[in-house]
Amino acid sequence: MTLHRLEGDVAHAWTNALRFGTSVEDAAVDLFRSMRQQGSLLPTSFALPDVQTNDEPSEDQSSYYRRRAKVIRDKIAKVGKLVQRAGKGHRPFYLIAEGQVWFLSTHAKVAQSASESFVRAHADIYLQLVLQKELREQSGIPVADTDPIGGFGVGVYLMHKVSSNAKNLQLAELRFDVVPKHGIILANVRASSFYKTGRGPDIRLGALDTGHGYSADIVDLRDVSVTRGDAREHPIRGIHLRKSEFRRTRLYYLNILTEFALSIFQRAGIAIERDTFTATHYVREGYLPLASIASLARPLLIVNTTPEPMQATSLMALNDLKSYFPKGYHVAGGRVGFTQPKVKLASRIPRSLTTKYNYLFLNGAKIETNSVRILKAGDDEAGPASTVRGYNCLETQGASTDPYTSMKFAFLMNRAVFGFCTQGLDRSPAELSGLGADTNVSATLREEVKRCLVELSLKEIVAGVKPFPVSHLVPSETVRRLTLLGTRSLNSGRNSRKTLIASIEVDIDSAGIRVRSTRRTPWSEERLANLGFVEQFPFLVDQDQEVRDRQFWMIDATSGKRLRAWHGSFVPKLLLNQRYAGIEAALAYQENERNGLRDVEFYSKSKFYNLLPYYISMRDQGTKARTESLGQLIPLQDRGRWVRIFIPPADGIDGTGTSLSGMRDVMVYTNNGEVIADGLLDEPLLHFYLHTMTNGILVSGGNSKMSLLEKFVRLTLEN
To answer: What SS3 state is found at 434?
Structure first.
């Protein structure tokens, strides 16, 4: 038994969730009543207009969304009796949800009872609109003069890393997600990138007071002509303890946004409290090690899809991993080497695949961050495209794509089972030849090659070629046969989505986890295939009979019990030790305690301050130093009907940058769908799940936040 109760001076951590003392509907009505002095602002809506365009759908659909935004603004202005007319150039604030366009408007003649009923009926929309409006107003930006959120447009943004006259704007978009079922609202942030087009005026900034003499820059883009860029090129760092960087991290943004929302509700007299994470138990031996799968069972076939010929030195590194990768793979507590596979070079690009090999496709350099290339009829040169658009073209035979995308579509995405192990590497033969060089570029490439080998090893397991050895997970009470289920919805065009479902049958015995069979939704037969899945697993659909996105289930074939692991923006993240009133108060406390050390470059990650519990320590602030082996444990909080799990970084917080760890909320249901609350921590399904996290396997050198079993399903869905 490796699940232990956590006793003593346990740390309490604020999260980015706020929990209402009443229902979300009652909270929205209370907020509306407190704000009647501002003109009785009500959420108003109309159906999202169908904008006609002759443009062919493309990767850059900014012209379509600009046109739609203009149509929406014009329609809002024509409402007349319901909304005050904006002056020339004013762009009313709105959001798009549930197929409707929503905005706040003045309804002076609507009765109080009718107004409150409308707010109650659309409580989540109203709360989001009001909080966005307040963000603008408190930073000094007039609401009537701001651009929209939703669709193509601008929401509420923090300046992230650029000056006001820069062409490339790296911003942090601020959002609020309301979960009425659980009575919570969460602050969330995502990276956004814009490029200024034309010579227009510089952007203007508002200042949001964050306390202790600091403020955050809210961006006003109303007079600036911009187009969206690829935010993946400019991610927001999760945690960075260097003082010059700390206030430009996801951790800081989530803290100030949560504190802002709390202040709005408290000022309105609404019963609300901050959600906390307080571990009640922890798991030992919960991480599966990389060493057990650091080998390939089948030869590795290299397929060069580039016009560049292979060089004599291109495969030297892959044929001699020990010499070219002397440090192996970094894992918690040491290093792991990958067993040398047999490597062969394909004489040409194959027309079909075989189960004799694992395939590594060299795709050449990316174009505009995309590795997928589409060649339309009549064009002389292939252009970059998203993966989904590539699949759509192959489905309709409207264009040809690069060899790797074509192979992946034909031998995975459009098949009903997982059968072939392929991996793409967006590099050229010449780049492979430089693997031995002592440069940063070569170091990055070495990591990419190492990850390709691990991915192929995992795919061998999914294909049933070999088991994943986890013999320590097979005590007598553990389940022996599982069905793994997962879903994924992908945007496949304007107002169109593809929903994929995958199931995996696995056995657990003394050899470990072995895949017996796989089943998945073929891309071209989505509707028919999904009907079969839903008929067998009716819990995959919501009340509207739609398949929910990003699900993961484990079903015990013997008892019929099923486990659901929830993740996403609605599952909170850890932000701050509960001892501190806010993030700026916590930083000021450090500055005061370390008086005379103001020239210190970093904020402290000492257990004395325990700024970020469970990243630093599971124990309360001020506890004497002790060995916790935190990166080897899994803290969890028993919340009755569900268990909240936090996966800490394997090596603790790195002062120069650490990802912000997510959490999983896990529930177990009986075979008739009832939630198990009594004795949840004794459920074998939960125990098995808690022992399938990984170290060094899914995240290089660190703990993954995802179960290995969930990874198997994702590979089956999308490779």
So the answer is: coil
Cα angle value 244/247/249 (rounded, 5°): 105
Distance of CA 213 to the CA centre of its chain: 33
CB 202 within 8 A of CB 219: no
pLDDT of residue 539: 95
The identity of residue 423, as a single letter, is Q
Query: What's the DSSP call for residue 660?
Result: P
Tokens of 117: 């009923």
Q: How far apart are CA 663 and CA 181, in angstroms?
A: 19
Q: Collapsing DSSP states into helix, strand and coil, what is residue 467?
A: coil
- Residue by residue, DSSP assigns 72-89 as HHHHHHHT-SSSPPP-TT
Residue 273 exposure: Cα atoms within 13 Å on the Cβ side: 6
CA distances in angstroms from 163 to 152, 225, 280, listed in the order given: 23, 16, 45
More confident residue, 190 or 484: 484
Contact residues for 476 (Cβ-Cβ < 8 A; gap 6+): none
662-671: per-residue pLDDT in tens? 799 999 999 9
Strand ranges (E), 368-457: 372-376, 383-385, 399-401, 421-425
**Bridge partners, 488 (sequence order):** 500
CA–CA gap between residue 313 and residue 429 (Å, rounded): 9
- Spatial neighbors of 305 by CB under 8 A, at least 6 apart, are 349, 361, 362, 363, 364, 402, 403, 404
Q: Which tens digit of pLDDT belongs to each residue from 144-157? A: 544 444 333 446 78
Answer yes or no: are the C-beta atoms of 67 and 50 closer than 8 Å.
Answer: no
**Which residues lie closer than 8 Å to 427 by C-beta, 6 or more apart?**
362, 363, 364, 365, 445, 448
